[in-house]
Design a protein that fits this description.
Layout (H helix, E strand, L loop, with lengths): L1 E5 L1 H7 L3 E4 L8 H9 L7 H4 L4 E4 L2 E2 L11 E5 L6
Length: 83
């Protein structure tokens, strides 16, 4: 099982702040996880479509190729601008 957290506008679009998920067979990196979640349709497509979506694995920024394992925490958050 992994823990997934959704932040900011992504959390609002999905209607949840997080979930626990058993890693499906073959889903072993961030890119594959994003694609798997996007298959849920509608609002979930934002996970695949948002080009500059940030990801952290175990509270460290991670790229699409970052590997995942049971027990990991994955956080998705859109870039934030301030002023």
């Amino acid at each position: 099982m992994i823990k997934i957290l959704y932040f900011a506008g992504l959390r609002e679009a999905l209607g949840i702040s997080g979930e626990e998920l058993a890693l499906p067979p073959g889903v072993n990196d961030v890119a594959l996880l994003r694609a798997h979640l996007a298959e849920r349709g509608e609002a979930w497509n934002a996970l695949a479509a948002t080009r500059n979506l940030r990801t952290a694995v175990n509270q460290r920024l991670a790229g699409a190729a970052a590997t995942l394992a049971d027990g990991d925490e994955v956080a998705f958050f859109p870039p934030v601008t301030g002023g």
